[in-house]
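User: Hey, quick favor. My workstation is busy. Could you predict this chain's structure for me?
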Amino acid sequence: MTNPKVEYYVLTNIESNRHHKMKMRFEHENISANFSPVVEFTDPRINDIPQNYKRSFSCMIGHLDMIQQFIKSPAEYGIFCEDDIHIRRGMNEIIPETIAKYNRHNLEIMLLGYLFPFKPVELSFYHEPEFYHQKLDVIDENLIYFSYIDRLWGAQMYMLDKRTAKRLCEKYTIEYGYETIKDQSITPFAADWTITKDGRRVAVYPMLAIEEKPEGYNDDGQGSYHMRCYNCHYDEAKYI
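Assistant: No problem, here it is.
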């Protein structure tokens, strides 16, 4: 059964193949997820902005719409997902531990799925020393939690509490987004520049969500990076 303290939200095109696939994955884990519609480019909030901003604004407002739904819910914690992810088997058994860690360390953002083409426990300090404050070891399949720098990208899955959710929605309004078009020095109006970075934060490893194998990337560099991330972390025995 879904933990009553937690609500899950998935940003998707309702009745699309992705929607049905994500519904199947969560139902496999006995989780009843809330499916939030993507923000169309014709939405009044972004209809008049320049074309090259519409995609990022659509995604960001979609995330904020999910967070607003959570704020109105009775749940204490919200887990927010994109719709192209494999989720960790045994999710319901893992979430209570993540909540305990979240509270014990007075966190605001817990990143449960992200893009990183290495396993943190195998990463050499000589390669990426600024990611970690200490050596990280995994014993059996226990989760580890590590602070991360701004260069860790992705908002595939993350957890917030009510207080953090309200703070982020009050700060990152559509008016804030419009200002980022006028002033390029302001932090971009995008989920993995704002929501996953603004506050006391940790990432979880092994991840609870892995982005699916990439398809249809116009940018070879982006496609290659996403494929490296997928190949590094996906394990059919551990993810649905």
